[in-house]
Amino acid sequence: MQALARQVRGRFARFEQDRYGRSWTPAEVMLGFVGDVGDLSKLVQGKSGVRAASDLDAKVAHELADCFWSVLTLADCYGVDLAQAFNSTMADINRWLDEQDKPSET
To answer: Name one GO molecular function term (predicted).
Structure first.
């Protein structure tokens, strides 16, 4: 997935260069991500019955994939090994949750 995200980012960079005279910075990729999260939040409202929209399942899947692409792209921009970071973070959370399961000593 990382390689495909990188390939698509390269194509976007060429498109941006042609259109705007430069490719987007990581900060601009992040702003695009924020927009995609906003779109996703509206679709989630639709799934909850709060907003009307057609073909919600396909649109939610599309926006989740857009958001995931942004995360993969930002990880690539900053040299983050996302698989390692994810595994480490999940281990940290599990350790914390294990601690919460222990009876308190009062």
So the answer is: hydrolase activity
pTM: 0.88
Task: Copy the structure tokens of residue 30.
Answer: 């992040």
Instruction: Report CA Rg, the chain.
Output: 19
Token duo for residue 63: 């926006």
In CATH, what number is assigned to the domain containing residue 55? 1.10.287
Range of the domain at 9: 2-80
Is position 54 within any domain? yes
9-33 tens-digit pLDDT = 999 999 999 999 999 999 999 999 9
Structure tokens at 19: 């259109």
Largest CA distance in the chain: 66
What is the Cα–Cα distance from 81 to 64, expressed in whole angstroms? Answer: 20
